[in-house]
Amino acid sequence: MTDLGHRRLSTFFFRHPRARLAALLAVPVVWIVGVYLGSLVVLLLSAFWDTNPFTAEVVHELTLDNFRTLFERDVYRDVAWRTIRMAALVTVADAVLAFPIAYYMARVASPRTRNLLVVAVLMPLWANYLVKAYAWRTMLSDGGVINWALGPLGLHFDGYST
């Protein structure tokens, strides 16, 4: 591209911030949507495939046997119904709790209260990280599984013995 072409493109994006935003977001959004929809399509297709009962290999022939099994056997029907019911209850509970909190945070709360509510809402998302950190700390400690496994070999790992 020539210098004049660069200047025109730069001027266009400078004058049209929405076009600039669209250009910046286009590739990541297409990628995420493509991967997400591609995964859903593969998941849907796999629901119509069957497995060989002897080798447990997937047979790529379209069949409705999986859905027939889902509706005919009580255990699968109960699990599916429980899953759908739980998903509906969680959706309703989240909507009942989340919308008033979000409205309060956006329209009513002071900046300090808003920050505290953001921390309170995001705190459960950190639980997974904390559990992993404590698990690694426990495994690598003096009495952890690493030293237990290396002990018979005459090896010792200091770990977190501070």
How would the blueprint of this fold be written?
Layout: H1 3-15, H2 17-48, E1 50-51, E2 58-59, H3 65-72, H4 74-108, H5 111-140, H6 145-150
Helix pairs in contact: 1-2, 3-4
List keywords for this structure.
two-stranded antiparallel ribbon, extended, 6 helices, 2 strands, 162 residues, mainly alpha
Question: Care to describe what's here?
Answer:
The protein is 77% helix and 2% strand. With 162 residues, the protein is an all-alpha fold. It has a domain at 1-63. A two-stranded antiparallel sheet has the order 1-2. Strand 1 (50-51) and strand 2 (58-59) form a beta hairpin. Helix 1 packs across helix 2 and helix 3 (65-72) crosses helix 4 (74-108). The longest helix is centred in the middle third of the chain and has 35 residues, at 74-108.
How much of the sequence lies in strands comes to under 5%
Number of strands: 2
> Which sequence of SSEs, written as H and E, runs from N to C?
HHEEHHHH
The major sheet is characterized as: 2 strands, antiparallel
**Which structural class matches the secondary elements?**
mainly alpha
The span between the termini is 60 Å
- Mean pLDDT, rounded to whole units? 89
Instruction: List the strand order in the largest sheet.
Output: 1-2
Radius of gyration: 27 Å
Shape, please?
A: extended
User: Which residues sit in consecutive blocks of at least 5 with pLDDT less than 50?
Assistant: none
Q: Output the number of helix runs.
A: 6
> Helix amount, in percent?
over 70%
